[in-house]
Specification:
Low-confidence stretches of chain A: none
Oligomer: homodimer
Mean pLDDT of chain A: 96
Order of helices and strands of chain A: EEEHEEEEHEHEEEHHHHHEHHHEH
Organism (chains A, B): Corallococcus llansteffanensis
InterPro entries (chains A, B): ATPase_NBD (IPR043129), ROK (IPR000600), ROK_cs (IPR049874)
Structural class of chain A: alpha/beta
CATH class of the largest domain in chain A: Alpha Beta
Number of domains of chain A: 2
Distance between the termini of chain A: 8 Å
Strand order of the largest sheet of chain A: 3-2-1-4-8
Shape of chain A: globular
Protein name (chains A, B): ROK family protein
Pfam family, one (chains A, B): ROK
Number of strands of chain A: 13
Strand content of chain A: 15-25%
Number of helices of chain A: 12
CATH topology of the largest domain in chain A: Nucleotidyltransferase, domain 5
């Protein structure tokens, strides 16, 4: 029977009815106006009911993918930074409201599960999915199962330390991979560079609008020979490449999937990651390794969440 | 019913009969004289039969822990450097000789399984075991299951790259953690330092016998203020500490076990690892984390192998 998949973001809720093979039957979207748990439950329920109505089928079970730290067995969201939540029993609340079983998982885990069953991971049992977008994250599948970790936060690739004591990260710690290579931080570093007044090439690309800067601007400036931009770009690419290569060595996946806006739109960084895996993952761990791009885009999480509830 | 556990090394085979709770009932040891697969099978069988005779009980099933790359489903040893083997179907050969089921696993996986069920890992579902001895390795338990990886080589912590392009490792690649922090390489680096003639303190500890050098010698020289020794020691400790902290961030284990001769006998390095996990593992990943020493010593592998076959 089809199931519901929910993608719970900080500003929007997306709901979709998904069949057992991971195909989207219908979807609906609603804005999160009231961020209090009861308000969000209501928003989810409305989007869910709309999606079910559009699909015109009966559904059984609902999976929710949400950014944050989640207890997989209880469906309690320990921390959801986007929503400012701590210890919200979303699974129970939503179950009461919807009337059927609800499974809550981390958004990247949901995305990886979607790719595993309906995307670029089909057929793999051991997989590492790396996302470099505004943040940096990953999800691990081992022996066909999600690796959640004891507290539900396994896969925090963005918060491994690449420069102990280094650049301050949004998480409050220093020297995290994300502080150097996440999209938000690539932009921040590019703005810092611009503010020094030393980068003519970067200035020529940005004119007087620093807010137009994206990671693509950085890569463009680096490719045009801007020394400062090159340094930021190189460092970020190298840190991601070594980190991913080292996780391939540790986890020995059959498949490595790459996703997220930075990897999709900055081919220079993406290529460095591909080269890095070949150069630095241990020889035995990369035998038989297939590297591919995640292929479901924004739908991966919603499909994965639905399939996890099936 | 009790099972047999086999610890297959390059020079000795140990066999033990182990009960369902992981207690050793009896054991036997035999030297590996003939390293050809058929010869090793015979040596294993003799040790196994001796252990069974001493136990005076019937056994059902046999687990083998061996250093190398092993296909968990088939029991084929793809590569066993100690024995010079490639693609040896040890599981099948031993099954034919012994007359009951045989499971072959990596030696560190066996050791982690032993600690999980009968040692310092009891009660944990998610665990990382790190061994720093002559080499550096690890084993991962996620959701109560061993993470083997697609090719059976997950957990190769010793071969993550800490200095891309750096010091040559025994594996033939450059810049591996093991090349800086494995016991063999700590000794090699200490000998290199001694050969420069610049380290009086080290010289005073070694006299004229470089072959007496162990990782403990290095730590002693570092503690006495030898600048060169300090550098090698600090660098190794820092690399291990960051690597372990980063794996805690990625895997979010409930328990981290430390084992191996270097961590057992060099308290300075061990302490740096403990401090590093506190300083550098992401805050969410170390909530509820328990760090402990592996407690079964040399028996962990044999017990784990037996329990895997139960």
């Amino acid at each position: 029977m089809p199931t519901l998949g929910i993608d719970l973001g900080g500003t929007f809720v997306r709901a979709a009815v998904v069949d057992a093979k991971g195909a989207l039957i219908s979807s609906a979207k609603a804005a999160v106006m009231d961020r209090k748990p009861q308000g969000v439950v209501e928003t989810i329920a409305q989007a869910a009911e709309e999606a079910v109505k559009r699909a015109g089928v009966k559904v059984d079970g609902c999976g929710v993918g949400a950014a944050g730290q989640i207890h997989k067995d209880t469906g309690v969201i320990s921390v959801a930074p986007n929503l400012g939540w701590r210890n919200v029993p979303l699974g129970e609340m939503l179950k009461t409201r919807l009337g059927y079983g609800v499974k809550v998982v981390n958004d990247l885990s949901a995305a990886a599960w979607g790719e595993l069953h309906a995307g670029a991971g089909r057929g793999a049992q051991d997989m590492l999915v790396v996302f470099v977008g505004s943040g940096v994250g990953s999800a691990i599948i081992a022996g066909g199962r999600l690796v959640n970790g004891a507290g539900g936060v396994a896969g925090e690739l963005g918060h491994i330390k690449v420069v102990p004591g280094g650049r301050l990260c949004g998480c409050g710690e220093h020297g995290c991979l994300e502080a150097y290579a996440g999209g938000h931080n690539l932009i921040a570093q590019t703005k810092e560079l611009l503010a020094t007044g030393s980068s003519r090439i970067l200035e020529s690309l940005v004119y007087d609008d620093p807010d137009s800067i994206t990671p693509v601007t950085l890569e463009k400036a680096a490719n045009m020979g801007d020394a400062g931009a090159k340094e930021i770009h190189e460092r970020a690419a190298q840190f991601v490449a070594v980190a991913v290569a080292n996780q391939v060595t540790m986890l020995n996946p059959a498949r490595l999937l790459l996703g997220g806006g930075v990897l999709a739109h900055c081919p220079g960084i993406r290529q460095r990651v591909l080269d890095g895996v070949q150069a630095w993952a241990s020889q035995t761990s990369r035998e038989g390794l297939l590297v591919a791009d995640a292929e479901l885009g924004d739908d991966s999480g919603i499909i994965g969440a639905a399939l996890l509830a099936a």
